[in-house]
Amino acid sequence: MKPGRLIGKGRTAEVYEWDEGWVLKLFYPHIPRGWVSYEAKVGSLVFDAGAPSPRVGGCVELGDRAGIIYERINGTTLLEHLMEKPQEGVLYAKQMAALHYRIHCSTCDELPRQRDRFSRAIMQAADILGEDKAGTVMEYLDRLPNPSKICHGDFHPANLMLGRDLIPIDWMNVYSGAPCSDVARTCLMLRTPHVPQELSIVGQNGLIRLKQAIHDAYLEEYLRLSGAEPHEIEAWFLPVMAVRLREEVPGEREWLIAEVDQRLQCLGSSQ
Questions:
Q1: Which of 203, 216, 93, 101 shows the shortest CA–CA distance to 157?
Q2: Nearest CA to 252 among 152, 139, 125?
Q3: How is 34-102 classified by DSSP, letter by letter?
């Protein structure tokens, strides 16, 4: 079978229409086959565990490219929608929180463990932080709670499809761990000072205000639904920021290093 119309593209793959009710995520030739099979595996695990996610229909090979067949989610990303209708930011922020909480109510022991994933990423960031700081963050991580709930790992408006409902996509970073860590990462991405430079100054300022409004409404609603306390989320920012450093997101390094240093100083003064 040949893919249909191209309907989207990203850094690692293109998305094509496939059979009725399905799409094909076709990865570029340089993407390792192991990455593709891993994404298909964790996608199936998450769906089978009952977390809201697209069904995985299997893998295919087309020439020198590998692909995954996914259930088609008709709609647009929440980010695209909110860029057109920023006045709906608070409304959808609350829906984001409810969806995230639903994910965190599911468990799957076959997913990667948070402690392993975070530890590896923090040590990979040691060349940025320095070995001593990375070691301190690792020691701190060992003292945090370690439950076994499904965590999306990259939950933000660009990874949420808006159709009849909100559906999370891109589960490549999923892990089994502490929901508060997953919430902290979402808050971190909404707090980041980085905005696309191609936007006008007016557009950049508007995006910053939109992100702040979404952050505040999302966090307030998640805390209400889950019963978690703000300090339980805040406790995860240090390791989550260290993990984020390894991703080398443009415009974030200096900000993240300053935030990590501030938290390490507070940690040292409290000991």
A1: 93
A2: 125
A3: HHHHHHHHHHHHHHHTT-S-PPEEEEEEETTEEEEEEE---SEEHHHHHHH-GGGHHHHHHHHHHHHHH
Retrieve residue 35's tokens: 């990455």
- Hey, which residues does 107 pair with through a beta bridge? 149
Displacement of CA 101 from its chain's centroid (Å): 14
Q: Is 27 helix (H, G, I), strand (E, B) or coil?
A: strand
Residues 237/192, Cβ–Cβ less than 8 Å: no
95 residue type, one letter: Q
The alpha carbons of the chain give a radius of gyration, in whole angstroms, of 19
Instruction: Please choose, from the candidates 96, 42, 129, 90, the residue with its C-alpha nearest in 3D space to the C-alpha of residue 213.
Output: 90
Q: What is the pTM of this model?
A: 0.92
31: closest CA among 66, 62, 58, 70? 66
| Nearest CA among 59, 16, 15 for reference residue 37 | 59
Pairing of strands 65-71, 175-177: unpaired
Is 112 in a helix, a strand, or coil? coil
Interacting residues of 212 by C-beta distance below 8 A, sequence separation 6+: 190
pLDDT tens-digit readout, 148-198? 999 999 999 999 999 889 999 999 999 999 999 999 999 999 998 877 656
- Rounded CA-CA distance 129/135 in Å is 10
41-64: pLDDT as tens digits:
999 999 999 999 999 999 999 999
